[in-house]
Amino acid sequence: MLIRREPEFTYADVTPKEVYKNRRKFLRDIGIAGAAAAIAGEGILSIASPNLTAYATSKLNFTKGKFSSDEKVTPVNDVTHYNNFYEFGSDKGDPAKNSQNFKTTPWTVSVEGEVKTPRKFSMDEILKLAPLEERIYRHRCVERWSIVVPWIGYSLSSILKMFEPTPKAKYVAFQSYYDSGQMPQAKYGGIEFPYVEGLRMDEAMHPLTLLCVGMYGETLPNQDGAPVRIVVPWKYGYKSIKSIVKIKFQEKEPATTWNLYAPNEYGFYSNVNPGVDHPRWSQATEHRLGEIFPRKTVIFNGYGDQVASLYNGMDLKKFH
Amino acid sequence: MKKLLTSKWTKVIVFLVSSIPFVFLAWGLLHNDLGINPVETLQHTTGDWTLRFLIFTLAITPLRKTLKLPELIRFRRMLGLFAFFYVLLHFLTYLGPDQSFNFSGMWDDVAKRKFITVGFAAFVLLIPLAATSTTGMIRRLGGKRWQSLHRLIYVCAILGVIHYYWLVKSDVRKPLIYGFFVGILLLWRVWDAYSGRKRNAPATVNTRVSTAGSPQQSS
What we know:
Chain A is an alpha+beta fold. Chain A is built from nine helices and 13 strands. Chain B is built from ten helices and no strands. The A-B interface holds A 32, 36, 39-42, 44-49, 51, 77-78, 81-82, 86, 90, 92-93, 143, 145, 188-191, 261-262, 277, 279-282, 287, 289, 292-294 and B 17, 20-21, 24-25, 28, 34-41, 44-45, 47-48, 51-52, 55-56, 97-98, 100, 108-109, 112-115, 166-167, 169-174, 177-178, 181.
């Protein structure tokens, strides 16, 4: 096995750090499950994921950021093996399995739209654009599970500030990478690709909004949105778009993937709010991975002090 | 084949095999090895196996008729009871870890959310079927009435599939697979009822074989 440890900040082809098979999962699959399992195409237990899949990351240099939560960080294995990344399959364990050969080098992020001079960034440029900090954020999925993750990156505003937006720039739209060849499971997901998301300008410029390149001290694993993603901690997880290739300043409210799929279930703002239920389930409580009983969900995912003022005078039920 | 199907050991084996998902869950629970979201694993696994056992139960009559293996009827009650066993566990994992055993919260949920409403309805409708599964109850109700009551399983299976279909976010492949099997098995019954092939004579199950005294006609 060849391990390249060259310039820390390049996304060269890295060899998997830990490779081993989950023997029991294998036995489970070939074993007695038999005809019964064939009905749904899986084993006896509907386990979201195997415990271990190989993935490749390398170390990052960073300082501790000031916006961190002091809650217990979720084990890295959970955050890397329990993912919603529909491009690589819709089961929680799929992304860890199916994203391992995803090519993230070379990678460019194009910043365009209502700006004086649009330009493209290479991944190396993005990594050097501002000092990297670690920020331990709560992350709340619309499906009611939550985790606490030590992300690494810098405020998205650091990059947005480099541009001179035209007066028309009211929103920022994001787009994920999409390649049906590398993501053959995406077609079963039921949603349209490429995945798109967006924020209002003041949300995008908010210091909490993170341009994220790593977690747990290392670069992002593919299944968590390598090589660069957005993290918006006071909104439901699907707003935190993965593997971005495009950032676009625009006048109109951007289309967002889940809103396009089911407008009554997923709004543009998608602020975490225990008072506004998803039509199919209550959002009053959440299930922190690793805990048995639910805990109460907090408005704006507990970031109300920092962000509530962004929505002064807005009906949060209507603009959910 | 007939010998195999009428052996008392076959029933024991079917029982043991049907218990395997439960054994895996219990083992996983004791060893804290139910994946990253154990509550979800419990809910999804018990839900999956409920639908599977409903399908197995519904498959008995078409199979015994088309394969001319009336002895298969011996296994129907057990499979149906396993469906009930898994749906009971499914309900408990919802009531416990999901609702913290808070019944008022549960009722709100049942009233408000249609996927819970249909799932709960399917569960409730299965209760009388499980309760009247004993030989004594069959005798007390009389074969015909017992049989009409137990046709509720058709409704339960359909509601179960709808429950799953409404639950998933966007990838509907698995609910559709279950729906396909339930659909085929129910359509077969429609076809069987209306086709001239339907015989008036009861299926040839001798009483020694069907110790359960299950009703002889199809269900």
